[in-house]
Amino acid sequence: GAVVSQHPSWVICKSGTSVKIECRSLDFQATTMFWYRQFPKQSLMLMATSNEGSKATYEQGVEKDKFLINHASLTLSTLTVTSAHPEDSSFYICSARDAGGGSGELFFGEGSRLTVL
Amino acid sequence: GDSVTQMEGPVTLSEEAFLTINCTYTATGYPSLFWYVQYPGEGLQLLLKATKADDKGSNKGFEATYRKETTSFHLEKGSVQVSDSAVYFCALNEEGGGGNKLTFGTGTQLKVEL
Question: Is the pLDDT of residue A2 over 90?
Answer without folding.
Answer: no
